[in-house]
Amino acid sequence: MERENAITFKGGPLTLVGEPVSVGNAAPDFTAAANDLSPYKLSDDKGKVVVISAVPSLDTPVCDTQTRKFNEAAASLGDNVVIVTVSLDLPFAQARWCGAAGVEQVKTVSDYNGVDFGNRYGLLIKELHLLARAVLVVDQAGILQYSQLVSEVTDEPDYDAAIDAVKKLL
After folding, report:
1. SS3 call for 39
2. Catalytic annotation on 63?
3. Residue 159: strand pairing partners
4. CB of 68 closer than 8 Å to CB of 74
5. From the candidates 63, 82, 103, 137, which is the catalytic residue?
6. What domains can be seen in the chain, in order of their start residue?
C-alpha cells in the first residue's frame, strides 16, 4: 500500500509505503537488528510499555534531539517502560552514535535488513528509503495506545503528548 502526499520534507510531498497502524489494534510484531546484530523483536518487550521512536537518521540534528530527549525522559519513567529508537542507520553507526551521545536509556535498533518495521507500520518513505518521524506507544498487552506521525520530517514530535500517553499506562 502506498499513501501519496502523506508527509513532507522541507515542504515537498512524500509517499509512505506499508499499512498504517491504528490505535486500539495490536501493534504488529517486527524484527530489527540490535547494535550487536542480534535480532530485536517488539514481542521481546511484551509486558512493558514500549515507546517506539522512529527517526530517519540519528546523524541528523532533529533525530539526534529526539533520541536524546527520550533518553532523558526514560530516567523518570521507571523499569516498566522501554524506549526503542528505530532507524535505517546501520547497527554499527547506531552504536557509535549512542556512545558519542552518551545515550544509555534507549535501545537503538536498525531496520536496514528488510525494512520489516517500516513496512508493517506504514512508515517507509518511498522516495528517500528512510523511515518517517513517528512516535508510537504500545501497552503491556501489545496494543497500540498512541500514534503520532510527524507531518513534516524536519519537525520534532510532541514529546509531552507521547510521555503523557506513557504515564497513563503506568
Report:
1. strand
2. yes
3. none
4. no
5. 63
6. 2-168 (3.40.30.10)
